[in-house]
Amino acid sequence: MKILNFLRDEGLHVGGSFSSSSVLKSTLRDRFKSFNGGFEEVHRAQATWLVPDPRLREVLRISISAKLLPAYRAFLG
């Protein structure tokens, strides 16, 4: 959840507008940097996890993807 906070729209738009010219580009760049750094940190930690049950491992993988991918796509859009 910590890294998903970097993908929120709050604070990115000037005057409530969603046009590309209103996006604070430096804020956007900082958010991507923070997200990437946080993602790598979480990935390093979770890559060491051992989940012997293959079904549980797959459920975890799907659950993480179901939360992360839509948030990342929405932010990228």
Gist?
By secondary structure, this protein is mainly alpha-helical. Helices cover 60% and strands 0% of the residues. It has one domain.
Question: Can you walk through the features of this model?
Answer:
This protein has 77 residues and is an all-alpha fold. It has one domain (3-76). The protein contains two helices and no strands. The protein starts with 24 loop residues before the first helix and ends with a helix.
* Helical coverage, percent range: 55-70%
What general outline do the C-alpha atoms trace? elongated
The number of distinct β-strands equals 0
H/I helix tally: 2
Gyration radius, rounded: 16 Å
Strand count, sense and barrel status of the largest sheet are: none
Mean pLDDT: 84
Structural class: mainly alpha
Low-confidence stretches: none
How far apart are the first and last residues' alpha carbons, in Å?
20 Å
Strand content: under 5%
Q: How many domains, as an integer?
A: 1
Q: What is the string of helix and strand elements?
A: HH
Can you lay out the helices and strands and say which pair or pack?
Elements (H helix, E strand, L loop, with lengths): L24 H23 L6 H23 L1
Any descriptors?
single chain; 77 residues; mainly alpha; 60% helix; elongated; protein transport; exocytosis; Exo70_C; Cullin_repeat-like_dom_sf; Exo70
